[in-house]
Amino acid sequence: MTTRTSPADEIHIALLIDADNCPASKIEVILDELAKYGVTNIRRAYGNWKSTGLKGWEQVLHEYAIQPIQQFAYTKGKNATDSAMIIDAMDLLYGHKLDAFCLASSDSDFTPLVMRIRANGLKVFGFGEKKTPSPFVNACSRFLYLENLGMPSQAEEKQDPAALKKSAKELKGDAKLVNLLRSGIEAAAEDDGWAALGGVGSHIGNQTSFDPRNYGYRKLSDLVSEIDLFELKKVGNHIYLRDKRGPKKGAC
To answer: Domain range spanning residue 184?
Structure first.
């Protein structure tokens, strides 16, 4: 996304939180991540605030200037929070000048909403736990797993930290990831087969929701180095990649 230089050109983001499906302990890292792209002018959290399960959220609402939206569970077994978020998102889409939305939830019910927002030319950032269904993950412009961001929660602390990081074998066995990297290199490559890392990352980001942190790596260069299917070289401050298999037959 292009960096804006004046306040009038700031990218405006609406953050809508499904408090039932997003841990309050991650709100700081969510806002910190969004600050890289623009200003989160609208911040709303949806849920039944009479529920004891949302006590954690009540403690951070004022601290982070988040507006609580009360939503009663009118029917047992039905998630009224999702419906309220979807209605508000559509109102915001047409009633406010926004550049992007952020949906914090692990619920796949928001997949059609994401696709509708993106059809209007806006980016959608998603945040959720690793249980989030793939349709929602893939629909977003960029989706980040909360387990890979910030300090680990109590449940995550019980896990081996190395378990969050994919091994070289696991990376190589992920056909989708390997194909994304190879297609990115092919699209950004010069005549000699070398492609700038930034160009590869941009091409992949235009194809699907992708972030190396979802695989346990802070940077794309770290992930590529670990997977060991590509040559890497550094020229000044720039990193270049080339497929170890060589250029495709028939390529110019």
So the answer is: 168-243
Cβ proximity of 234 and 186 under 8 Å:
no
Structural tokens at position 145: 């797993």
Q: Per-residue confidence of the chain (252 residues) as pLDDT tens digits?
A: 444 444 446 899 999 999 988 999 999 999 999 998 999 999 999 998 888 888 889 889 999 999 999 877 654 544 667 888 999 999 999 999 999 999 999 887 899 999 999 999 999 999 999 999 989 999 999 999 998 887 554 444 444 444 568 888 888 888 888 888 998 898 888 888 899 998 888 888 777 778 888 888 888 888 888 898 999 998 888 899 998 886 655 554
Domain for residue 250, yes or no?
no
pTM, 2 dp? 0.70
CA neighbor of 227 nearest in space, from 141, 138, 165: 165
DSSP per-residue letters across 89-152: HHHHHHHS--SEEEEE-S-GGGHHHHHHHHHTT-EEEEEE-TTS-HHHHHHSSEEEEGGGSSS-
> What is the CATH number for 174?
3.30.420.610
Q: How many CA atoms lie within 13 A of 138 on its CB side?
A: 6
Name the domain count of the chain: 2
